[in-house]
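Example record

One chain of 806 residues, shown exactly as stored in the release files.
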Amino acid sequence: MSSTTYTTLDIPTRRKPFNYSYYLYGSIIFILIIINIIIYYYLLFHPSPDPSPIFIDLTKVVNNRGFGIHDGNFDGLDQYFTCSILTQQQPSMYIGNIPFQPIHSSNKFNDATARGQVITLPKRTLGALYLLASASHGPVTTSHLAVTYQDGSISSTILDIPDWQVAQPEHIHRLDRTSCQINTQVNGSLYLVPLYVDPAKTVSHLTLPYTYPVGSFAQTLHIFAITAFPASTSHAVHIISATPTLQWIQQESSQWIKVRIHNISPYCLDNVIVEINSNNHGKQENDIQTIRHGHLQRFASGQIAVVKVAVRLGSSSSLSSESTLISVTSKSRMGIQTTVAQEVLTLDLGGISNFTEDESSLGHHQAPDWLRGAKFGIFIHWGVYSVPSWSKVGESYAEWYWWQLMQRDSPTFEYHRQTYGEHFEYDDFIDQWNTSSFDAYQWLDVVDKANAKYFVFTTKHHDGIALFDTKVSQRSSVHLKPQRDFVRELMDVSQTSYPHLKRGLYFSLPEWYHPKYHDDWLGWQGPPRNAYNHSIIPYTASTPINDFVNELQVPQFLELINNYAPDIIWCDIGGINNSTAWQAEYFNQAKAQGRQVAINDRCGNSVSDFTTVEYQDVSNIPPRFWEATRGVDPYSFGYNHETLPEQYASTTSLIHELIHVVARGGNFLLNIGPDASGRIPEPMRDRLLAIGKWLDQVGPSIFEATDEPYWVTPQDTATPSQTILFTYHRLGSSFYIFCLEKPISGRVIIKSPIPLHPRAFIRLMGDPLHESLDWRVWDNGRLIIEVPDRVVQLGQHAWVFELRFP
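Predicted structure tokens for this chain:
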């Protein structure tokens, strides 16, 4: 047997020759970086004059007379602005901290109604553009104002301006505004509308959109003046406005101030701090001091942000105009801190110590921050109507069973006759109401797992049957067969086991058929009658009264306020009322207890903290804080046993609706209707749990977003087949892009100007690998995000991309 010997040879390794070019290139790059850093900090901190406003000439584009002393025709109906801030020639008029110069000349025109005009801009870099604008015959929405730059690129702002005669208190509007009297002796609104402009580019011109001409009685955009500010490095931030709120922190002597600021520099700023203090030259008796500053981790170039500053008020600051010094500083990553803005503004500080039973006093109340930041809540409709639990699917509300029964030849009229007979009255369902499955813990556990931040429960619907212990009537679940105070059980469990959930109580002001309820405006009249022979029937357990409003409606509101301490009172229908009586009690009591509460806009008077929109898509942004509400059922709040499992709204469609609402600055109140026993139907439970799981992955994009829509546009228009919406982190640290359909060809295309940084990190939220996605900006300004197949497949319901700043 032979063997083979193998020899290992030592072959010398050839050393690669030294490449000096690598070191040369690296050194050049390093030197360039150092030079850029030096230039950046020199420009940022080198003293230079505060940029002066540039007033854009509109004399060549005005085409209407929107204001005057004795003549005008703003809206085609011979109505026009007559207030002195427009009609009296003065150096400038202000909205917030922005000066404007409307046209005052022999020219009969002073109003540019938007008909596609091109307005020449100064050939320089601009940090800001602001319009003095208004709208007639409804809100102007989805109208693009396009800024064209010298390099041919374009950036657009999508306008959403409320109608000029939207009658709401000034402090609750989304845009900075001022009231201006009209020749008909009512007030209209002039709005401060910011436009996006890139501070790093030289501008060329502004193109107005095409809106309807005056006289067409359709939405028309009116522009009275345009003010620009040059891009600035030393004064990198412009303070647009500062608005006191009635919100406080910890103690009554404090107050939150909303400050709207604009980064007019070509650089992203780090660690921006906003403070407000007295401008009293050292006098101590009336000091105003910042106790919690406003903070942005990142403030992108060309962007606008709203920050909140908490101040401690001096002893004589209540309801007084105070001269304040607002300072904005930025601290670089190298630890260098500098002042980038400083303004002296006079603010009306203090607020109302106690509300009176007067709508003008109550109208100053505002939605609390916790509600504006809650984003997602659960509505629960449950009552005697859950026993028949029937309506024609998608056509009527199941909880309106009694009302539909009384409409001769309606589907419910026929269904009731065939199922129960003509002599079975609505109140007969009370004895059939078996509530054995009601469990407050199970209900609230589902609410909690859905990641909702608040709930609203129906304490009394239009049938007049209260689900709480009321002393002014025996028509309640406590005195009748269930003999349970469901409101007490739910509120107690929430307070002890789910204290992080805010608690809301729904209450119907009218009752359909109460013997003493007579409302010609609604067409609701008592007493109750048999649906088939029209004979008068008993209103079970109702205590005899003479005055429905003051003997029943107001006392029951006060019972809910005093006995259950709700965070929200969610009124319904309105109608005849004396709501100021309980509203003053509610606001004053909550303030004394250190609680911040809210009411909606259905209490029958003009007092409210937010607008409600029911089962309705919203394309435009409401002028104030708002809440959208709908059921998981296709068209019902109460349980409808006729609805098949596949007919309920899908999880995906509900998530899309949540995104649409939050991106437009609202809250989404999603309703479930338990069956008569108190069991939440499986399709409803499944939808809530699935929404909760989705929110577990993308929560910051919803719950940590600002409570105002992204100011440039809430929705992109680059690719019509891709619905893309935006939210912005309240600290400026991230920007969120919601793509509601699968990315086409593995990419997302965005046309709208969004905050970018050359080293921004973009990822799909929910990606366990946290993969950084490639992106680039084309010459036309469009952002392209490359999305690999692996990442595309991870998306469920919606693809949410986080753009994080370095």
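Notes: Residues 1-20, 42-49 have pLDDT under 50 and may be disordered.
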